[in-house]
Amino acid sequence: MTQFSQEQFTAAQKHHAETFFGLTGKVFDGFEKLTTLNLQAAKSIIAEAQDATGKALSGKDPQDLLELQNALTQPAAEKTRAYSRHAYEILSATHAEFVKFAETQFAEYNQNVQNLVDSVAKNAPAGSEGAVALLKSTITAAFTAYDTANKATRQAVEIAESNFDAATAAASKASKDSAAQSSRAAAKAA
């Protein structure tokens, strides 16, 4: 059996450092995108608040304020949904990069373990075939369990995304219905 050499140890440490910094870069990329989104949203909110304040102060009667409120309700709900969707897309893309990276690392790890088991099997003393077979069986079972858990996780993510889309559609419909009711109430009051 081969021993773990200093070169192998150094190469492994270098690989782990590269992995760490690569993942850290992905986290900061996602954070940067979310920060940019939040700054854009804050600028938009301030500009809209300034505009709405100006319109509210120039209103001549309560009916004008009610109409202004109705005019602002629908766009605000739409912008909130758009913001939520955009933030979700950023987080989802960052997550997808992590998953892709993890799957690549797992495949590499799997190959290394298989190579190690093959090396152990070649160098195993006579009479240890049962132990080697048990080791191979255990490793195969572990990888199968990982694959099953990975598939279940993907299904859960797909269900969560579907539920998010359904909730967004329901919220959109509810805000449109609310705006329509407010418009009808304003029309009756006039």
Q: Note the total helix count.
A: 3
| Order of SSEs | HHH
**Main sheet summary:** none
- List the quaternary state of the chains: single chain
Which radius of gyration do the C-alpha atoms yield?
Answer: 29 Å
Shape: elongated
Structural class by SSE content: mainly alpha
Low-confidence blocks of residues = none
How far apart are the first and last residues' alpha carbons, in Å?
90 Å
Beta fraction: under 5%
DSSP summary, beta strand count: 0
**Could you report the average pLDDT, rounded to the nearest whole number?**
80
> Number of domains in the coordinates?
1
Share of helical residues: over 70%
Organism: Paraburkholderia fungorum
Domain Phasin: 7-106
Pfam families: Phasin_2 (PF09361)
Protein name: Phasin (PHA-granule associated protein)
Descriptive tags:
mainly alpha; 3 helices; elongated
Descriptive report:
Pfam families: Phasin_2. This is Phasin (PHA-granule associated protein). There is one protein chain. Helices cover 93% and strands 0% of the residues. With 190 residues, the protein is mostly helical. Helix 2 (62-123) packs antiparallel against helix 3.
